[in-house]
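B., you asked whether I could sanity-check this one before it goes into the benchmark set. Here's the sequence:
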Amino acid sequence: MAKNEKRVQVTLACEECKRRNYITKKSKVNDRERIEMRKYCRYDRRHTMHKETR
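And here's what the prediction gave me:
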């Protein structure tokens, strides 16, 4: 298995405004479920929950 196959690029979308604000990487091996984070949304101008989208 190559080095880059274990980590994948994911997009995070804001739960409030539904815009896709962030791109990050996650481990396919350790994190099988979709990730959720509290991140700053510049459109809402506050911290909101962001979930992984496909």
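One thing to flag: The CA atoms of residues 17 and 44 lie 7 Å apart. Otherwise nothing jumped out at me.
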